[in-house]
Design goal:
The complex is a heterodimer of chains A (363) and B (360).
Chain A lengths: L3 E8 L13 E8 L4 E5 L6 H9 L6 E6 L2 E2 L5 H4 L1 E4 L11 H11 L4 H14 L15 H13 L6 E5 L7 H18 L3 E5 L2 H7 L2 E6 L2 E6 L1 H6 L4 H6 L6 E4 L1 E3 L2 E4 L2 E4 L12 E5 L4 E4 L3 E2 L1 E7 L3 E8 L2 E8 L9 E4 L5 E4 L2 E3 L6 H4 L1
Parallel strand pairs in A: 3-8, 3-9, 6-7, 7-8
Antiparallel strand pairs in A: 1-2, 1-4, 4-5, 9-10, 11-15, 12-13, 13-14, 15-22, 16-21, 17-21, 18-19, 19-20, 22-23
Helix pairs in contact in A: 3-4, 3-5
Chain B lengths: L1 E10 L2 E11 L4 E5 L6 H9 L6 E6 L2 E2 L10 E4 L11 H11 L4 H14 L15 H14 L4 E5 L7 H18 L2 E6 L2 H7 L2 E6 L2 E7 H6 L4 H6 L6 E8 L2 E4 L4 E3 L10 E7 L4 E2 L8 E12 L3 E8 L2 E8 L9 E6 L5 E3 L5 E3 L1 H5 L1
Helix pairs in contact in B: 2-3, 2-4, 3-4
Classes of the chains: A alpha+beta (363), B alpha+beta (360).
């Protein structure tokens, strides 16, 4: 396993990048710690697959260097980088048995047959295909084939890193839960450096130690799931993480108070720096309290999704979403109030830290 | 109204659809929910007339249309893959069914612009589909289905290939678009969460059978059968097998527990109890909640919530807890089962008491 350093990596698919828009990756400068699990999360076109392909060697960056454990691998081929990859769609040998498919990467490296057998059986168990070991891969369902692909990615323990490109897209929801928790167990046991590309927030948040949120060719925030949830650094992170995303309202700020329309809203503290750009208040639907206190709203829709309800309402000229628990009622004359310590303030879409906030959460 | 009466479909000796009867009304949204290969697409093909049933009848607005091919039916379909005419503009793509129907130019223009407006495609009418994002490509396919003004619109996992957030957006818009047209909408998905967000009615499918059909939230809350409860649960439904003798529940591999008052009248015997991940708690929600000791396997933190994977006796459970909680793998913790929301199934899997009754 290896530490991976990305040094000022930039990439353009065109020959002569001139404007900002020509860069598929504007600049990424970051270290992936040895033995950690990362998710690259963002909408299509954000640059996450470009970044993964640079790490795997399928792409050579226009600028910058890539180091594995301090050694420059920028010019090495995918093969020379000694990594395992799992793609969105199954990549397996149809004519081989399930067992031989899993054994292939090990036999290729001349691993002793006894060790091959032990390892393959372990993986078969994990992907729940032990009973299918002797069957040929042809004729298996798409998700069984994808499980073999995952297994092949995990079968070698001597790789520098394992890279996953949306590996669970073709897997049924129930199997996703099983595979995700097994991936996680496996990571805990073997400590592979894992990088996992996805556009699915649940997958990213539940898989990774740290989630790298990307937007328009840039990393906008790297953080643990709770940091991304509680302190989105950019309104895009607030929107992209969480379902529904964070509510964003235009406000003005004076001291430790925000003003929305005619209403004063108490903030968790005084914003630390003077602010330029449009000032906005961000509050997650989970922290909007619906009751008889606060600002009056008109409810437009209540979506009962079983474990909770999503209440959509108009607050002055703005749409606002609130989450109400299963056994809570929606009041007749509804008002909304915000949990003060869960409010974030944004200037020009970037979060402004409050005075007295610790460096870690401010970062 | 679309009626399927005892419809079955056998292909090469394999039963793809088994004795399905369903009645779908105009202006309704009907979700077909089930895992891959449960029969969703096969059922849609029968509804559309792409396939003829092996037995049973298909009736549309009182008329027997069994075996009538899709070309002679007024049906629109949208698939998981984005299917558009690549050489035509978005405008022409949307207009194509109207041109085939021989509509005049003014009508075509009016309807194309209306559909484009509804699906927020107005700025892209002059582009070709491959110059659009995936979301816009699928909006184009949806707009074409809308202008077709079909009595039956079949959507086969239409959002599956889209980004998470695009899905959220389009999913919120779809019911509004549906409501306006008055057509019968059928929407296939593998995801319980998607069915709940869409609302309407849901038919749960398992191995070619419809196991239950009714208003979505009711099917979710009151599954009549264990298989329906399992199909309609993500993360997977928590279950435990137990034996009731008199006032005591003997948990499989665990301690004896007093039977909740509401279950006191249930006959002695073996039962399977089912409960949702959010009905397991770290602190007792009511004094009646049943405490059990379970072993932690994995923790998934999603920001606002934590999924705690547990092993209890031979059962694997998932708990959905509010907030952020850290536990070590293999740690034994005490968790509480909320007895107000239990689903109880007999040995054949049939529900003996819905949690609604238990709560009463």
């Amino acid at each position: 396993m290896a530490r991976i350093d990305l040094e000022h990596i930039r990439h353009s698919y065109g020959a002569r990048p001139q404007s900002d828009a020509d860069w598929a990756l504007k600049e990424v400068h970051h270290t992936f710690k040895d033995g950690s699990a990362y998710a690259l999360l963002g909408p299509s076109g954000c640059g996450k697959t470009t970044l993964l392909n640079i790490i795997s060697g399928l792409l050579h960056p226009t600028e910058g260097r890539l180091l594995f454990d301090g050694n420059d691998v920028s010019t090495l081929s995918t093969q020379e980088r000694n990594i395992a990859q799992v793609f969105q769609f199954p990549v397996i040998y149809d004519t081989m048995t399930v067992y031989d498919n899993l054994a292939f990467p090990l036999r290729n490296r001349g691993v002793a047959e006894r060790d091959v057998d032990r390892r393959v059986r372990e993986i078969l168990e994990m992907i729940d295909l032990s009973d299918w070991a002797k069957r040929r891969a042809r004729g298996l369902t798409a998700d069984q084939k994808q499980k073999i692909s995952l297994g092949r990615g995990l079968v070698r323990s001597d790789v520098n890193a394992i890279l996953f490109d949306e590996p669970l897209t073709v897997i049924d929801p129930h199997m996703k839960w099983v595979l995700r928790s097994q991936l996680k167990l496996l990571h805990g046991r073997f400590g592979h450096t894992m990088i996992y590309v996805t556009h699915d927030q649940t997958e990213a948040l539940s898989f990774a130690d740290d989630v790298v949120v990307m937007y328009e060719g840039e990393v906008v925030q790297i953080g643990t799931p709770d940091e991304l949830f509680e302190r989105p650094k950019h309104t895009f992170v607030g929107y992209f993480i969480g379902s529904p995303g964070m509510n964003v309202l235009p406000v003005s700020v004076e001291g430790a108070q925000a003003r929305f329309g005619g209403t004063a809203i108490t903030l968790p503290g005084k914003p630390r720096t003077p602010m330029g750009g449009a000032i906005e208040l961000g509050i997650r639907p989970e922290f909007v309290r619906l009751g008889r206190e606060g600002m009056p709203v008109q409810i437009t829709k209540v979506e009962d999704i079983g474990r909770h309800k999503i209440v959509r309402a108009r607050l002055q000229d703005h749409e606002i979403a609130a989450i109400v628990r299963e056994d809570e009622d929606v009041p007749a004359e509804p008002h909304v109030a915000f949990v003060p310590e869960k409010i974030n303030i944004y200037a020009g879409s970037w979060r402004v830290a409050f005075e007295g906030e610790s460096e870690r959460t401010a970062a | 109204m679309l009626e399927l009466r005892n419809v079955s479909k056998t292909v090469g000796g394999e039963e793809h659809i088994r004795d399905v009867s369903l009645t779908l009304g105009h202006g309704t949204l009907n979700v077909l929910l089930g895992p891959t290969l449960s029969g969703k697409t096969s059922l849609m093909r029968l509804m559309a007339g792409l396939d003829a049933p092996t037995s049973g009848t298909v009736v549309f607005d009182g008329e027997d249309v069994t075996g009538r091919p899709v070309q002679k039916r007024n049906v629109a379909m949208v698939y998981q893959q984005f299917i558009n005419y690549p050489a035509m503009t978005v405008y022409e793509n949307i207009a194509s069914p109207l041109r085939i129907a021989g509509k005049d130019r003014a009508t075509i223009d009016r309807e194309v612009r209306h559909a484009a407006d509804l699906l927020r495609l107005t700025p892209y009418l002059d582009r070709t589909p491959l110059n659009l994002s995936g979301g816009q490509q699928q909006r184009t396919a949806l707009a074409r289905a809308i202008v077709k003004n079909a009595g039956l619109v079949l959507l086969d996992e239409p959002l599956a290939n889209l980004d998470y957030k695009l899905r959220e957006e389009l999913r919120a818009e779809l019911p509004k678009i549906f409501a306006e047209s008055g057509a019968i909408f059928v929407y296939a998905t593998t995801e319980p969460h998607e069915a709940l967000l869409l609302g309407g009615n849901t038919a749960t499918l398992s191995q070619g059978r419809v196991t239950q059909f009714g208003p979505t939230i009711e099917v979710f809350r009151k599954p009549a059968h264990l298989i329906t409860a399992k199909t309609f649960s993500d993360p997977p439904l928590n279950t435990i097998v137990l034996k009731k003798s008199g006032p005591v529940f003997q948990l499989d591999g665990g301690a004896d527990l007093p039977a909740p008052a509401a279950l006191a009248g249930v006959a002695d015997g073996n039962y399977t109890i089912g409960f949702q991940p959010h009905h397991l708690f770290l602190r007792a929600p009511t004094p009646e909640a049943v405490p059990v000791q379970a072993k932690v396997t994995v923790i998934d933190i999603t920001g606002s919530e934590t999924f705690i994977h547990l092993v209890y006796a031979d059962a694997r459970w998932v708990m959905l807890a509010h907030g952020i909680h850290h536990f070590d793998p293999d740690e034994m913790i005490e968790v509480f089962i909320d007895t107000r929301h239990l689903m109880v199934f007999d040995e054949t899997g049939r529900a003996v008491a819905s949690h609604e009754k238990l709560a009463a």
